[in-house]
Amino acid sequence: MFSPLRRPALTRSVLKRAIQQNHRSTICSKPPKEKIGPMQSVFALCVFAVTLLAPAGWIMHHIPNYRQRSPPQP
């Protein structure tokens, strides 16, 4: 009936139990050595936003120039 090459299907509970047994927790019990203030957080968010939005803004600003160019010759 059962083929030796075919494994029986794992149920969700068996799979969940297997994952939980192999999971190692990485929870720290100590408070952080240095606290990050609001200025560092704001600075980091601003740098992140500029990094993402600057290239998109550059492209959108130059769309008229891109439209006026002739297509490249093969």
Automatic annotation (TrEMBL):
Alphabetical keyword list: Membrane, Mitochondrion, Mitochondrion inner membrane, Transit peptide, Transmembrane, Transmembrane helix
Protein's cellular compartments: Mitochondrion inner membrane
Domain of life (superkingdom): Eukaryota
Keyword Cell inner membrane set for record: no
Gene3D superfamilies reported in the protein's UniProt record: Cytochrome c oxidase, subunit 8 (4.10.81.10)
Topology in membrane: Single-pass membrane protein
GO-annotated biological processes: mitochondrial electron transport, cytochrome c to oxygen
Pathway(s) where this gene product acts: Energy metabolism; oxidative phosphorylation
CC terms in the record's Gene Ontology section: mitochondrial inner membrane; respiratory chain complex IV
Pfam families xrefs: COX8
Transit peptide among keywords: yes
Residue stretches spanning the membrane: 41-60
Family: Belongs to the cytochrome c oxidase VIII family.
Protein name: Cytochrome c oxidase subunit 8A, mitochondrial-like protein
